[in-house]
């Protein structure tokens, strides 16, 4: 969900009430609940957050807008991110000079090119950041940690 003040990322899991709120001015990230998302917010589906990047015009949020299932590892789906959106935290570009606007446009074009290259894979249930060998040699405490904590 997008409002002029915040980005709200809502989990689609049944029963999930938590919503990630990202302040577009302070860039502060907090957890809130669904009822805090204003009805006026523009809503669109995403499959994940790739991250943020700071360019000339300010910070941008990179989200995955399309995915394709490419396989499974131990019954865990592996997805390939196939399309992205680059969302500006700033509501306007009036604070930039013409040269800064042009530079920012070039950087956004470069970023879009990098994102169009194959190679962005993810899983919501399996740890792709560690090798199978490393996972086999980790402690039970590590195995019980969430993917985010790892």
From TrEMBL:
Gene: Sacm1l_2
Domain SAC, chain residue ranges per copy: 47-140
Gene Ontology terms for molecular function: phosphatidylinositol-3-phosphate phosphatase activity; phosphatidylinositol-4-phosphate phosphatase activity
UniProt KW keywords: Membrane, Transmembrane, Transmembrane helix
Gene Ontology terms: cellular component: endoplasmic reticulum
Protein name: Phosphatidylinositol-3-phosphatase SAC1
Keyword Membrane on entry: yes
PANTHER family referenced in this protein's UniProt entry, alphabetically: PHOSPHATIDYLINOSITIDE PHOSPHATASE SAC1, PHOSPHATIDYLINOSITOL-3-PHOSPHATASE SAC1
InterPro entries noted in UniProt: SAC_dom
EC number: 3.1.3.64
